Fold this protein.
Amino acid sequence: MTSKLLLRFTSYLIAGAVSLFNFQASESQTLPSLKDTFKNNFLIGAAINTQQFQGKDTAANRVIAQQFNAVTPENIMKAEIIHPKWDVYQFDLADELVAYAKKNNLKINAHTLIWHSQLPAFMQHMQDPDSVKKYFANHINTIASRYDGKVYSWDVVNEALNEDGTLRNTIFLQKLGGNYIVDAFRLAQAAAPQTKLYYNDYNIEQPKKRAGAIAIIKSIQSAGVRIDGVGIQGHWRADNVPLNDIEESIKEFSALGIEVMFTELDLGVLKNPWDNNTADVNAKAEANANMNPYTAGLPDSVQKVQSKAYEDLFRLFLKYDKSVSRVTFWGVNDGQSWLNNWPIRGRTNYPLLFDRHFQPKDSFYRVIATKGK
């Protein structure tokens, strides 16, 4: 190829690339916005990771800025990261998150103060109740007070219930007794008077577990302690969304005078070995090719099921938008989702509204369209 031909060919490539860039930019600018579509109904959030709030994932950052007005940190405010040793707190990442949210006008739901999982190593085998009590109080006081007025809300206690509605047998229940949840909210209320305080759990739309959550909320309220809302996580399979139970839960929780949120929403398309809607992070299973059928892409028939499920859910959220205050997706795109590695590592799941290339899926457009119906 001559130098003139090479130059001409190169110019064509550059022109084509510029055209493609302009097309993508134009498409991004004209894409409907979730946060704007539902601005008069509820907040729209996403769980974000460190790369994203540090600005290293530019594609994700564009989607976050355009689509969401609330964020939840996936991991960096959990105890093993923010409080790794008895007298050591690591605030750098959480401080970066706060700065990122302020710059981008995002409300932070801080996640989470008290949870039995992802505890620091020094806590996992602690036997002395007095030491657990001291850790418990210091952890809540130190972290909640530092971020009061900087975060919008806290998941004060996370996943404290068994499926039958009884309290999970955690180190906090064992060492502090059944009143530890009330105590956690009392401490958080004192440390963070400007911050909303929530209880968060999965499957609490199910009747038995819902009854357990209601009992927790009533015990907090009866003690004269503030609780502002309850988070229903919303890890459901697209072909098995319990709409009737969800609707009943919205009604029963809101009747207690608190906000209702859907805090970790994703509608996976892969079955788990137990064929249920569990979201217990400790549940693991061995890899099986039959459990990973969509490695080459999501079939249209399955996409249609997911789209309809998301549409039905958002119609329900809109029906109760005086009670529902936030809907947060657990991730920004399909590739980021925890469901690719839970309960079986290395699968290809498609649970969110944006695909692995940050392109909106049919589910996205069906959600947007609910405001016109």
Strands lie at 43-48, 70-73, 107-114, 153-158, 196-201, 229-232, 235-237, 259-268, 324-329.
